[in-house]
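can u do me a favor
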């Protein structure tokens, strides 16, 4: 079976990307699926693209298996979410490797403190914890990380 292809997202996929984002976020146990959450994520995708996101998808035979949002000028990995149906298949690692081709020397990211599975994974992948801060948009306490090429 071939790996999903990482490619730039298309505007006609934004609603489906938001659905994958919501389902993955819900899979962390930190939120419940709702039409309200989905509408907010759909609006956020469009707003963030206007504000400088480079948005990518992992395309698995015309199914969006994951979404990856980078803010390249800020060296910031903003969102990496894998659809629950594709979790546990090293797709996150593939997306992170792709991210390192886009930002080869340094990457920053933030992760919700309660999402222990995610931040422990980033630590195993070489990211170093720097500080905690409250996300003004959501109120979540965020763990801030940085990775630098050795």
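np, heres the sequence
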């Amino acid at each position: 079976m071939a790996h999903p292809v990482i490619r730039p997202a298309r505007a006609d996929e934004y609603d489906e990307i938001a659905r994958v984002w919501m389902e993955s976020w819900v899979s962390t146990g930190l939120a419940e699926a709702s039409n309200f959450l989905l509408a907010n994520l759909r609006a956020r995708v469009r707003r963030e693209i206007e504000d400088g996101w480079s948005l990518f998808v992992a395309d698995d035979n015309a199914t969006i298996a994951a979404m990856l949002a980078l803010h390249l000028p800020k060296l910031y990995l903003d969102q990496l979410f894998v659809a629950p149906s594709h979790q546990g298949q090293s797709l996150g690692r593939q997306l992170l490797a792709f991210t390192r081709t886009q930002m080869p020397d340094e990457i920053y990211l933030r992760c919700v403190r309660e999402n222990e599975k995610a931040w422990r994974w980033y630590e195993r992948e070489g990211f170093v914890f720097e500080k905690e801060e409250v996300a003004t948009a959501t109120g979540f306490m965020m763990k801030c990380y940085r990775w630098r090429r050795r």
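The domain at 5-148 is CATH 3.40.630.30 (Aminopeptidase). hope that helps!!
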